Amino acid sequence: MEPILKFARQWGAPAAAVIFFSLWCVGEAGRMGGSLLSWEGLWPLALMTLAIASATWKPLLSLGFTVVLLAGQLLRVVPPMASNHWAIYVGSFIALGFILWTSPRRVRFIAAGTNVAAAAVMTFLMLSWRYGNGVGWFSPAASGDRWMLQENGWQLFALLLLISAACSAVGLLLALYQERGSLFRSREQVQNSLKETEIELIVEQERIRIARDLHDVLAHSLAVIAAQADGTRYLSKDQPKAILNALDTIARSARSALVDAQRVIEGVRDDGMVTPQPRLSDIPALIDGMQRGSLKIQSSESGIPVELSAGQEMAAFRIVQECLTNALKHGGRGTDVRLHFDWSGPGLTLHVASAVTAAGPAEGADAATSRIGRGLAGMRERAHLAGGWLTAGPDGEHFRVTAFIPYGRDPGTADGSGGADAGGAFDDPATSEAPPALAAAQEADDRA
């Protein structure tokens, strides 16, 4: 049914026009005076045929053909209807049915109003003694139009409206049927889309849950391995160097595996491909993006850069990104930020200082508390997973963040203190203490 209606919607009007013209030619073949060109009904038939043929493609042009026919007959440019071919006017109502089927709402109202007015003009043309001369079943009235229009005008007008309503009903029913089918198809598509979305959501939630569980298990297990290896190495300094080296290798491998596992879990997309992870080389682009109308950043660097692992580079990038984001969030546009990379020690030290907006004592205390309590947990966790540490807190008119990411044990440190800094994130609280600045920042974060 749908293919047939689709074909009829596109080609039904031209086909109806051909049938309309052909039937009239066959029906009037014996009354044309021997030639189609000399027949009085040729021009009305031609105009109504064109009105039907163009109803689907150019509805306003179709209405124009009807208006041209009626205006031409009123002005006596087009021959009036004879008593045996007045029904050519029905072509206007057939065209109306196609217009109501295929045209938008606004054009439908215009077509309906035009056909009501056209029916009134047709009634006058068919009943007036000056034009129609009685249309076949009404007697000619040579004494004027008033009596004829009063006696028979409403009857003929109602008949024309009835024919128009029948054609309009067919067109509207076809339009409603197709709209109903379209609504059903849309509803089915929406339902299918909702089902697919629900399935994807369930799969994504399950994937996230598994990733979190896997991360928690790996983070706990590998952190314990690294902490125990570092603790044993620090407490067993009199052991052979081979044992100390083995313990150091175990701790480093555990920390590296933990960072790589986190990078893989965070970087896997829905299609299973691993997304490129940010590196230190991406920090200049990040700074440029934040500087464009947002922050005033002064970046500096000291020392000779040393190659870091992929996980450590990602941790450094994320820490800088979080610091700049927090500076924009809490300080607003135009906030002064100073960023320094120090490569002179046993690891990379990041110093980030952002200006604190002026506020009253109470507001300043609340702002400082909220700054300490937000976003620092993630930065501190990244620094710890990279084998380093992070401190943060207000310092006068600035909010400072200091992060340390080791890139190797200091060769000049015989007692392994450099390694302690690198492994402090995994030390057991009972056997080691955090740096005073880190402890103070952690206490402030806990209070927030």
Automatic annotation (TrEMBL):
It is an enzyme of class 2 (transferase). It comes from the Bacteria. GO terms for molecular function: ATP binding; phosphorelay sensor kinase activity; protein dimerization activity. CDD domains: HATPase_UhpB-NarQ-NarX-like. Its EC number is 2.7.13.3. It catalyses: ATP + protein L-histidine = ADP + protein N-phospho-L-histidine. PANTHER family: NITRATE/NITRITE SENSOR PROTEIN NARX-RELATED, NITRATE_NITRITE SENSOR PROTEIN NARQ. This is histidine kinase. The lineage of its organism: Bacteria, Bacillati, Actinomycetota, Actinomycetes, Micrococcales.
